[in-house]
Design goal:
It contains ten helices and eleven strands. By secondary structure, the protein is α/β, with parallel strands linked by helices. It has one domain: TIM Barrel (Alpha-Beta Barrel), CATH 3.20.20.150. Strand 5, helix 5 and strand 6 form a beta-alpha-beta unit. Bound molecules: magnesium ion.
Length: 281
């Protein structure tokens, strides 16, 4: 059996993840954590949370960066508000990312995940150079904390993402592969993309989606329960095994406004992944 842990994207007080109590009810032992709000990121809270995690034998694989003012309302608004690409908030968010890295260190977490935003497509532009420099500075800071950065896929082609990572030129920059995002943003086939990024994957989101019926890249596709969209869950997990991925399979279902449905669909995803894992030798 392909023996990798199943996890779930989790939120304490910010982000679209599942509530921590639900993680315990589902019996999962691995989570990615959306970074808590700034006022919650205290040493005392880190200690209390570590105690809670140890009580349930749960490990955090990744702390995901999230910032005030980010909005995924439309693809256009996402490009204007998310990550380190919007110039107005770039410096302040870099400083906040350092703080989040320190908080994650208190939790003993190695990987810091990030939607860095839409990487500028023109490699010779000033903005591209500035985003490269910002992410290099972040990677250097993470290195001092013995941490690495994982970039979420989907907002640009993986070819562009790989070129960007090469330009950052740090040995602690990797990928958190979200196959659904490639469909949601109209970027392309996630399985082919996964083969291209191969060994650079250090985290994944088991998330699914169907393509937009409008204009790809302008209108959102629709997120759906894992296994019911266009990702091809079995092929996705088989391909992860083929590229030698041995980290957690972290389920992500972004419907916190419907907690009962969110829990049921995550439970169904756990069963699906277990049945796929049992078929993969
Ligand atoms: Mg994701």
């Amino acid at each position: 059996m392909y023996d990798v842990p199943i996890g779930v994207f989790t939120s304490i007080d910010a982000g679209l993840g599942v509530n921590f109590d639900v993680v315990c009810e589902l019996g999962l032992k691995s989570i990615q954590l959306h970074t808590p709000k700034r006022e919650s990121r205290t040493p005392d809270n880190a200690s209390a949370f570590l105690y809670k995690l140890s009580e349930h034998d749960i490990k955090i694989t990744t702390v995901f960066l999230g910032f005030e003012g980010e909005s995924y309302e439309t693809i256009e608004i996402t490009s204007q508000t998310v990550g380190f690409v919007p110039p107005k908030t770039r410096s302040a968010r870099l400083v906040e990312a350092f703080e989040i890295s320190d908080f994650a260190k208190l939790l003993g977490v190695t990987y810091i995940g990030s939607h860095i935003g839409f990487v500028p497509h023109d490699r010779r532009s000033n903005e591209y150079a500035k985003v490269v420099e910002t992410i290099r500075t972040l990677c250097e800071y993470l290195k001092k904390n013995s941490q690495a950065l994982t970039l979420e896929t989907g907002q640009e082609s993986v070819q562009l993402l790989l070129m960007f990572m090469d330009d950052v030129a740090c040995d602690n920059i990797f990928i958190n592969f979200d196959p659904a995002n490639l469909i949601l943003y109209g970027i392309g086939n996630p399985i082919e993309a996964l083969k291209l990024v191969g060994k650079r994957v250090r985290g994944v989101h088991c998330k699914d989606a169907v393509s937009t019926t409008g204009t790809p890249g302008v209108d959102w596709g629709r997120e759906v329960p894992f296994g019911s969209g266009e990702v091809d869950a079995e092929k996705f997990i088989k391909t992860l095994r083929e590229i030698g991925y041995s980290g957690a399979l972290t389920i992500e279902r972004e419907i916190p406004e419907q907690p009962e449905r969110q829990k049921e669909e995550i439970d169904a995803a756990i069963k699906l992944i277990n049945s796929i894992k049992s078929r993969i030798f």
